[in-house]
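Hi V.,

You were right to ask for the full record rather than a summary. Here it is.
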Amino acid sequence: MPYRVRPMCHEDLSQVTDIDQEAFPTMWPPANYRRELGTRLAHYIVAHEVVSDEGSPVTVTGRVRNIVGFAGFWMMANEAHITNIAVRKSHRRRGIGELLLISMIELALELGANLLTLEVRASNIAAQGLYRKYGLNQLHIRRGYYTDNRENALVLAVDDITSADFRQHLKQLKQAHARRWR
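Predicted structure:
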């Protein structure tokens, strides 16, 4: 089934919270996402299943359904700092996390970012592979960063997402993703 990405809205918060609980040992309370949606620094998107010919994620009753993942970043000056990317366990390994990452990078570019950063658990080898595929390299380690088990975080970054080389690489990866998953 194909997936699309759109901006997160308040109607998405219960499903986003469910996904957050599945994906992260330490969950943000729903109120934090609600507050995040109200700040100019935060930018969140959701991935949803396409449920009609028009690709609308809304049923006839107006209830949002089939959200399978979400991602967000904070935009500070020229830096987009990805705060989270999460996909429902039942929908992993279908290209949704990569779709969310591509969408985050494109949104960051639209908003004028040239630096992209994030933290990832030292044990999350799968996510690290995806991030490295998109040119994020390790800057340093934040020791004991995660509060649930004091696990280290790797800080990854791309110095210039506006460069011609990066944009060409992103275009190629986006095309390959579309061929594989659509």
